[in-house]
Design goal:
homodimer; alpha/beta; Aspartate Aminotransferase, domain 1; Aspartate Aminotransferase, domain 2; 2 domains; four-stranded antiparallel beta sheet; 14 helices; 13 strands; globular
């Protein structure tokens, strides 16, 4: 049978990226000693107040069709939080609930991109950006962050990538996979370019509640950026709600109208009980306290991992200021990220992601998620030390 | 800012269709005497065993990422049910869970259609088909059912609509809005054409569990149709689960692979607790018994409405064999469906849908949903009788 060319645009390396992860999770079902550090799924369950909010809603018969854009009280709360954090003046009409930030990225891309467009993507970037951009017929133009300077913005590379076909700049801050946050001056540089060349800016901020040091800045709050910025966020990471598929886009009201039309034929709204749970996540003091406790835990784990890797002369880390990930440069072992990850899995049953999936500039890196408890993390550190011994020996010979 | 041309393809009449519905639901919040018969949302809450299954899953921590295609036990059950009903040999690899049949229609259209394609759609058809087809760049070619013969298939019209650009035939059986079921011989006619011209067939069967008389036939079970048929279904209507957004597509394994790639960047799977609830819906005897009781109730309501309309010489009905809808021809009042629906709402506070939204051939019809309790239904019948008096008087003068 004849398929659409789109089916080619959504397959490829970005899909293959998960191979080791899938192998690791499959093996873990038979062998509990496998340690899965390859996915950004918090090991915490969703806080009880959020779960109980959904339970109450479900038992109360909140199982019918809902407003396509989401319920007013939830949209109002999201708008108020966003405005409070970054200063952009928004109302509920600037907000639409969608099935996760992933769905928001997908839907927004469909509404703003078309064949022939070029999208500048700061790399390394989350793996599904490629598919979301390419399925519209647009082209992903990678703009490598400055690998030699802890993945800060390479202003020159960004400048040189702009052509008359450029339609948008996509990035995540804090970044998945690097945990790097764009500074206010870096964001101002991007904003100036976007205004000068009339570009959309897609700011994926799903890790903006999982920050260990430094200040998160939303580009939407910078002067004259509101009209051209789409801010994505979700509860997946901040509240351990990955499985709920609850996220949103914040942008110009015209975009929200288009997204609403799209959602009518794509999704037809988020479940009411998921929306009530989301509202509880954003307002209930106990839920918020539990989310904060998760953040503290991620920070402790990050520090634990950093001290492990700092003892390995052949491994260098990009110290993450946020997120639940750590990028590790493995090139001094003589291996690239893919080979290192495969060998680590085979020898030590630890699943990590070869960071090449996030962009060619990260080909020498692996991404480690710290989403396991202290015991497993200690175990993982011990296995990594054991694993690294062979490379030390080789280099000493 | 510059938006994609797609944003034009997803707006239009099909979106406007809901205007009276939105007005009616808004007014109902202030005025409980409003009767909303304009949406296919069951008035029943989801059966308790299904709700409790979700509760158990939620409280058990089933709040993490899931397999993109859906869980094996659920896909296996859907495959087994489908095979048992229509004979098509399928396994879980022919099934993918998506966020409702709406999402399945959307995603499948993206995987099989492209710019330049023509899609034959049996009209009247559900309102979002247009957007799902047009957003791919394909063109919806309406093929009117035989309005003069209770909306049976107009074989000649279908034959004449085929061109060398035709890529697929889309229909719903039972139909929303007409409640008409395609017979086996009608489906065989469609199948022969599809095979001859190498076409995809999209068979939307979301009302196939809400049948009052006659036998539902799935075109996927006819000889040589498996490779080219996509069967859509969901729990929204059969189990009063509209708000849960749980549906699926059944098709060739290659299509399921493409849909899986698409879901990776579009949705990233259905919530685990929704999937557990869905499995309970399909297997729990009490849940199934409650679903059957809903079907019996819809049948009783349909009969109540039919006897009301049969007393109105100026109104003629298409007797629905299934679904929760009734198409009523209002042309003998001198009004079309739109004018009739607006006047009925203004005078009697009853919200119905002008059926023109479902296709030009239904411009003289209104669609009435019987998703209210007996008391409201009796009230609605009384108001319709009162409403009709003015037309009787006019025609007697």
């Amino acid at each position: 049978m004849r398929y659409a060319p789109l089916t080619q645009a959504i397959q490829g390396e970005t899909v293959d990226a998960w191979d080791i992860h899938f192998k690791a999770t499959a093996l873990k079902e038979q062998d509990p000693s496998v340690i899965v550090l390859s996915i950004g799924d918090p090991d915490f369950d969703t806080p009880a107040p959020i779960v109980e909010s959904a339970v109450k809603s479900l038992r109360g018969g909140d199982t019918h069709y809902v407003d396509i854009e989401g319920r007013d009280h939830l949209r109002n709360k999201i708008a108020a939080d966003h405005q409070g954090r970054c200063g952009q003046q928004v109302t509920k009409d600037n907000v639409i609930l969608l099935a996760g930030a992933q769905n928001a990225l997908f839907a927004t891309s469909m509404c703003i991109l078309e064949a022939g467009d070029e999208v500048l993507v700061l790399q390394p970037n989350y793996v599904t950006y490629e598919a979301c951009i390419q399925l519209t017929g647009a082209k992903l133009v990678p703009v490598s962050m400055d690998v030699d300077h802890d993945f800060c913005l390479d202003e020159n590379a960004l400048l040189q990538a702009i052509t008359d076909k450029t339609k948008a700049i996509y990035f995540a801050t804090p970044s998945n996979p690097s945990g790097v946050m764009l500074t206010k001056s870096e964001l101002q540089f991007i904003a100036d370019l976007a205004i000068k060349h009339d570009l959309w800016v897609m700011s994926d901020e799903v890790y903006s509640h999982t920050i260990f040091e430094g200040e998160h800045v939303s580009i939407a709050g910078l002067d004259n950026m509101a009209e051209r910025t789409v801010t994505l966020n979700s509860l997946s990471k901040s509240h351990a709600m990955t499985g709920w598929r609850a996220g949103w886009a914040i942008g110009p009201t015209e975009l929200i109208c288009h997204l609403s039309n799209l959602s009518l034929c794509m999704l037809y709204g988020l479940p009411g009980f998921v929306q009530e749970a989301a509202y509880t996540a954003l307002t209930d003091p106990n839920a918020l306290a539990e989310a904060e406790q998760m953040r503290v835990t991620y920070q402790r784990r990050r520090d634990r991992l950093l001290s492990c890797f700092n003892q390995q002369p052949l491994l260098t880390c990009v110290p993450p200021k946020a997120s639940m990930f750590l990028l590790v440069n493995v090139s001094q072992t003589g291996l690239d990220g893919q080979a290192f990850a495969e060998m680590l899995f085979e020898q030590q049953k630890i699943g990590v992601l070869p960071a090449t999936a996030f962009g060619e500039c990260a080909a020498n890196y692996i991404r480690i998620s710290y989403v396991v408890d202290d015991k497993q993390l200690d175990d993982a550190c011990a296995r990594i030390e054991a694993f690294m011994a062979q490379f030390t020996q080789v280099s000493n010979e």
